[in-house]
């Protein structure tokens, strides 16, 4: 059975359809003191695929609860699919005394999973933090699908880390050039994006990143463009925290295209096909 976590109900339904597996009934409740209770009242079978992005602390706990609930109901094999893995960007102790939060949550998830599937984590190496075998799948190429016909397109990465995603979208689109800017982050939502020498006047520019969180990176990159024709934003994980939507609107973005690893109005591309492919293969 495919078991949806609260933030991943649309993706789980897509995955059930793509893999021809039943979609489990789930309930999400809270006790009067605020403690969460995620349950799978009708679970049946010996294999469970729990699909749960973890964009907040409650979702982390609900994922662990669902993993435990299906075991309790008889599942012998549990796969945890994390479409968006929260805390993945805290993959090292950046200052003395800090935790490696990605490792901490990976270990916790591993206690209840025989296998893990991650969709486009910020750094693929985060998979190594799991004690269970972890597979990384890439959803970025699918972001080419909703793009309209583009004029002399430039697929732009706002920093070096996003070059792979920008190139993947360009390759799937089938035309255009790629380039990247240099980014320095000064704090939570303060970044400086230093433009490269890419010519942008009169061109359609698609700025591609794995995550849009506060929108500081995207709006900084767009501010560095010289008279583009239109600007599209393409990202795998539309976190869109704080004033991100307003930032993108004020930057003059024509459209935002994202996947359903996080369910937002712009999540028009499903990551289900790439997850389904991973489920069909044995982990290496
Ligand atoms: C970091 O390097 C990531 O690839 C994204 O660029 C970053 O997470 C975006 O965050 P924000 O929208 O807050 O600038």
Would you kindly provide a written description of the structure presented here, covering whatever features stand out?
The structure is a single chain. The protein has helices spanning 9-19, 57-72, 101-110, 163-173, 216-223, 244-250, 272-280, and strands at 2-4, 27-30, 36-39, 47-51, 77-82, 115-119, 134-137, 154-157, 177-180, 182-187, 190-194, 204-212, 230-238, 255-258. Helix content is 25%, strand content 25%. The protein starts with a strand and ends with a helix. The chain folds into two domains: 2-138 and 270-279, Rossmann fold; 141-260, Rossmann fold (3-Layer(aba) Sandwich). Helix 1 (9-19) crosses helix 7 (272-280). Residues 122, 159, 161-162, 189, 191, 209-217 line the site of ribose-5-phosphate (R5P).
Q: Notable features of this structure?
A:
single chain, 284 residues, Rossmann fold, 2 domains, 5-stranded parallel beta sheet, 25% helix, 25% strand, binds ribose-5-phosphate
Question: How would you summarize the topology of this molecule?
Answer:
Blueprint: E1 2-4, H1 9-19, E2 27-30, E3 36-39, E4 47-51, H2 57-72, E5 77-82, H3 101-110, E6 115-119, E7 134-137, E8 154-157, H4 163-173, E9 177-180, E10 182-187, E11 190-194, E12 204-212, H5 216-223, E13 230-238, H6 244-250, E14 255-258, H7 272-280
Parallel strand pairs: 1-4, 4-5, 5-6, 6-7, 8-9, 8-12, 12-13, 13-14
Antiparallel strand pairs: 2-3, 10-11
Helix pairs in contact: 1-7
The structure holds ribose-5-phosphate.
């Amino acid at each position: 059975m495919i078991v949806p976590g609260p933030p991943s109900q649309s993706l789980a339904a897509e995955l059930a359809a793509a893999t021809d597996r039943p979609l489990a009934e789930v309930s999400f409740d809270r006790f009067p003191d605020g403690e969460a209770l995620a349950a799978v009242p009708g679970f049946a079978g010996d294999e469970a695929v729990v699909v749960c992005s973890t964009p907040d602390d409650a979702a982390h706990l609900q994922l662990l609860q669902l993993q435990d609930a299906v075991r309790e109901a008889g599942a012998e094999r549990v796969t945890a699919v994390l479409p968006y893995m929260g805390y993945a960007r805290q993959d090292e102790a950046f200052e003395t005394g800090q935790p490696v939060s990605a490792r901490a949550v990976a270990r916790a998830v591993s206690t209840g999973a025989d296998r893990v599937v991650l969709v486009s984590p910020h750094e693929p190496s985060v998979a190594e933090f799991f004690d269970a075998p972890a597979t990384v799948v890439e959803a970025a190429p699918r972001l080419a699908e909703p793009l309209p016909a583009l004029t002399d397109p430039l697929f732009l990465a706002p920093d070096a880390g996003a070059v792979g995603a920008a190139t993947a979208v360009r390759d799937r689109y089938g035309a255009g050039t790629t380039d990247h800017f240099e980014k320095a982050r000064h704090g939570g939502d303060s970044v400086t994006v230093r433009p490269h020498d890419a010519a942008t006047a009169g061109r359609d520019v698609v700025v591609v990143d794995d995550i849009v969180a506060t929108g500081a990176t995207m709006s900084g990159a767009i501010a560095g463009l010289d008279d583009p024709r239109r600007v599209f934003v393409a990202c795998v994980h539309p976190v869109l925290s704080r004033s991100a939507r307003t930032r993108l609107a004020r930057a003059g973005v024509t459209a935002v295209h994202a996947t359903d690893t996080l369910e937002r109005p712009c999540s028009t591309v499903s990551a289900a096909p790439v997850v389904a492919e991973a489920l069909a293969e044995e982990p290496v």
